[in-house]
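Hi everyone,

Forwarding the result from last night's run.
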Amino acid sequence: MLHLDQTGHVDSPQVDAASENHVDVQQAERTFNELARRLSGQSYAAAQPSKHWQSSNTASVSGTDLEKGEGPEKQPFDLREYLTSSNNANQAAGIKHKHVGVTWEDLEVKVIGDTDHKIFIPTFGDAVINFFLAPFLWLWGAITSFFTNKQLSTRTILHKSSGVLEPGEMCLVLGCPGAGCTTFLKTIANRRDDYASVSGNIHYAGIDAEEMAKHYRGEVVYNQEDDIHIATLTVAQTLSFALSTKTPGSNGRLPGVSRKEFDTMIQDSLLQMLNISHTHQTLVGDEFVRGVSGGERKRVSIAEMMATRARVQCWDNSTRGLDASTALDFVKSLRIMTDVLGQTTFVSLYQAGESIYELFDKVLVLDKGRQVYFGPPSEARVYFENLGYRPLPRQSTADYLTGCTDPNERQFADGRSELDTLSSPEGLENAFYTSPTYNNLRDSLEKFNLRMETEKADQEAFRAAVLADKKRGLSKKSPYTLGFIGQVKALTIRQFRVRLQDSFQLKASFGVEICLGLIIGGAFFNLPDTAAGGFTRGSVIFVAMLTICLEAFSEMPMQMLGRPIVNKQTTYGFYRPAAIVFANFFADIPFSAVRVFVFDVIVYFMPKLARSAGGFWTYHLFVYMAYLAMQGFFRTFGLLCVNFDSAFRLATFFIPNMIQYCGYMIPTFNMKRWLFWIYYINPISYAWAGAMENEFMRVTLTCDGNYVVPRNAPGMNKYPDVLGPNQVCTLFGATSGSDQIPGKDYLMAGYAINTADIWRRNLAVTIGLLIFFLITQLIAIEYFSPKISDNSVYIYAKDDKETKALNATQRERKVQRNEKHDEEKTEEQSLKERKAVMQTHRKAFTWEDLNYHVPVPDGTRRLLHDVCGYVKPGTLTALMGASGAGKTTCLDVLAQRKNIGVVSGDILVDGRPLGPDFARGTAYAEQMDVHEGTATVREAMRFSAYLRQPAEIPLEEKNRYVEEIIELLELQDISEALVFSISIEARKRLTIGVELASKPALLLFLDEPTSGLDAQSAWNLVRFLRKLADQGQAILCTIHQPSSLLFESFDRLLLLESGGETVYFGDIGKDSHIIQEYFARHGAYCPPNMNPAEYMLEAIGAGLAPRVGPRDWKDIWLDSPEHERVRAEISEIKAQGLAVPVTAEMQPTRYATPFLYQLRTVVRRNNIALWRSPDYVFSRLFVHAFFSLFISLSFLQLGNSIRDLQYRIFGIFWLVVLPAIIMTQLEPLFIFNRRIFIRESSSRIYSPYVFAIAQLIGEIPYSILCAVVYWALMVYPMGFGKGAAGINGTGFQLLLTIFMELFGVSIGQLIASISPSIQIAVLFNPFVGVVLAIFCGVTIPYPTLIPFWRDWLYQLTPYTRTLAAMLSTELHGLPIRCASDEFAVFNPPATQTCQAWAGEFISAFGGYLDNPLDTAACRYCQYSVGDDFFLPLNISFDDRWRDAFILFSYFIFNTIVTIIASRFLRYAKR
């Protein structure tokens, strides 16, 4: 093993030993690329070996095989050469090393909950009950906590453990799932937030954990199992950002190397080391954004953590998804980095081969959180054999050690049993504590501690090196390498790129903004400078500002979606959380400023607002400042809330009040005194007032038309055409005898707004609130942002009578199975005997000359090339290759799952083309584990069995089969756990179980079924597949990192290399002798101690190592007799299949079960899902209740004045806002459920029509409940039902409210069904909401609507019907009595009474005179009955039932379109 002395020089003899163990990635062909030459060229005369490295590099370049056009970027990269040269150069330049040994003593970790504690999923019913009981429960909790000191119960998940890992050493952490490997790694990495308590001592080079977390956070890092990245950044940009925040200062770099050069060097080395240089300009991607492959994305995660240059690294199953060769290369790279740089490395791996195992210095074995071994890897196997476990020489050591802790898999030596062998976790722990290995451990630990306390050389060097890394001016105590301003700069650049590269989002947001601007501008087009333009000017300013401000609502979910990335990168020490707040603010400004500017230009000039440069820029300033303030407001809530539903609930406290209390709907002097304070904390109120002041201080309105009282009706000429002395202008701010009303007077009289406040108050406060919300974001993200635990905590559904009985049976069978290990062989023999009986005639599957081309920007790209092969019944075929070789692509093409690109070649079943029932006859366990998250494990399998097995099979038989699958996959203990809560490994088994539950008649496809499983689970799974194959099942599966034993379980292998080229197809043979002979015949001899599966990949050049031999292996295959035999075998299979007559079976159907059965089953699942989703359903009910309540609080018990009439209209108008709220909440759920449906529809489980109908049916009961609650809190507090319609009218309004609720659900599902993603769906919402609300005839009164809109869009808008029916029902026959300040007062001509002068006017226009017989100060009220208000608006009480059912017909129409869209629009490109 390679080790360094304190000066960092290499101990040569150990290098040789390492090379014998294949530590060096390319020991046979040493090379040094351009990057190393640059470094050595810039190094110092002291680093003499650089000349040798340059010459060796030149030699390797001259020897490069350029046959395939390989440039310098294809040269092998020698990591040891590179690191050693740079390390020596650093030492020569005086840069300190960072050697951090880790010690832990009595380390113990506890979590909340008892040992047998189960967490049950809360339901909608629980949520409702808890909401009402919450105040009482809180009070009771406060009282009991005051009198008692009861602490939360905890359980230990990692028992007392001790150990030491010195600099330059690597530790392999092994254990079954649930053993505590992840907990151990996270605790060592100082990530303690997920646990109730962590006790014991951990020291890093003598520094305690608390100081390490405070001052050296980025030096101890943890790489989690899941890959979390920003999908729209390229690989190069992802690494570039990571490096930019960790680039050392000038004291930590070589002299003459700039920051940019340093970053480029490190980035190039990481990309080459991990063999992903070809992806540097490819998007990282995720399940929604196409990008690099899964294996390549895992390597990006590895590179990102390596960019931290941390000296203590914890890697949690980081080879998941990597092929065996790449996994070995990765661990070799870790070995070299650990050796040369003196790192301290902890790694947990599943399925670690012997080649990987031999690279470690220590191995830690955990069993149920107990330390059962820690010591040299070479002694571990012997240690467990001495305890009484059976030696299994063909099993890799890592698998053997893990197996010894697994009750289901361990085997005892001859003559030994569980009775006389220590096998419990406690027993194994005690055995270790009394062993010589533990004594050696204690001795090493004490010696290392003593050295750390006395010498402290490593500690001082570490502190000095970290200090040298910091940028100048950065505090010595800061845990960051880069200063705060530098962090903000780096993050701003990154966030700007994220927005810029999301081109679809960018184009869509600008497109929607322009459309909204044109619609609002068109609706209020060319407003007159008369009294008629007064109220509408205020309306356009209000609508435009509200549209822009509420767009910022989308910031709330974006903050939550970005939280995992922020959490990960802050633990890496890239930046402090506060930096992302400023970065988001600055990065968004270029985009939002342009977008709002374009919108404002349209909305300002089309309605003909005051046309002056000063007027426009002032208006734009207020609108944009309001947008930024509201953006900060919503971002604050996004940072504070755990999930979108809780944020949505919180937002309902504010949004309706912000809209109502901005001064437009309710003027300040009419606001309820006890709610008046909302106006003063409302950002929109100041911005709207400022924009209003800006407009009205520049205009003077002329009083004419409908604002003059009394006036002539058509055909009359009694009254003057211009404002006369016996007439009055009813516009706010009018003065007697003048028809000119200054805008500032109108504002003061109508809204109590003073134009003098425009700068001194309104702008100042708006900017102040903007800054205030920036500060609240900083406080929220630094101190209050919820930490989302990535611990897997199982959440269960409550047992019913049936599941209790089933679980009891499963437990009994598990105990019986554990007692019958020796019967395994007999069972397998009986299966083989049954095989002949069961396999009467099962069809064979063949493919020839399979090619697949996909479109790319510059044409097409071939991913598969002339692939041939077959799968016979009763055989298990493996599909292998390097990451990115096209394994999943090949599987997708064969399973008919591709819907883009061009597939050519023959895919046949028994020599015949695929029939319509092919998808039904096959099962495909995909790599992405997509399931209905709220179903239990048992329910998920039953759903598959019910709908995919033939309808004639009895339900009891299907249920029995599901129980067998649960037992075989060892999911008994979590059969009632909800899918979203189970671990990655359990979810993988569930994916396979769901497919197996379908009993595929033809073929079973599996994509990387063992990825993410531990060795024992992988072996169990492959053994189970072997059993299925022995029963006649044909199976084809891709596989990564198979052990020798696992590999031999397969009958045949299809091996692909890069470009989708076939390298081998044929039998594997016992001990893999057939395939080994094939490769040996062509110069690739597999060493006896090496896994053939790993060696094959190395031989064809799948990893970093060059291929074996001068020829490309695909050419060798094409020229081989094996290839000819495969062709002949395929021809024979086809001939045999065609010879079998086609039986006169029933017409094959696309689905196994009838339509109504599908619908019933899917609706049942949807109902259960919604019942178990209280956050979603209760949030919706909560929003309706509080929305209605808050509005009603402003309009309590309305009377009969004109002002109360307006408030009735406002109260009713809020009903049309409901669909927008429903859409926002419903669309993400529909799109997520569609994602599940896409996976299920590929297997023809149920029809797309069933999916769409079931989604709607599930929502209807909750929609009716929400409608009833909204209606009750609207009608009774406001005092509705006082008109002629009475109580019956309020019942009719309930029906309309239900229809509106259903319309909201259906329009939301329609938009979701035609949208490819959530991000696109939410862009439709403001467009739909604004258009429907503006053109319904109330926002802009029907008489003043432009004829163009009035003739079609007014009639087309469903809200026209809603408001017409609601208003006519409420106002019909409602007597109106003006309050004293609501009368229009005028003087009649001399000698005339009020009635004589204004009687004809009142007869024509309605209203009444309060003093008809007076001869002066006539008091005219505009309305005498509610009908006077709505009749001029083209609304009729007699049409209310017609209008109600026209609204209902929109619901039917939306449903039909949703069903059709679900059938034809899947947006599932693959």
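The CA atoms of residues 389 and 933 lie 40 Å apart.

Cheers,
N.
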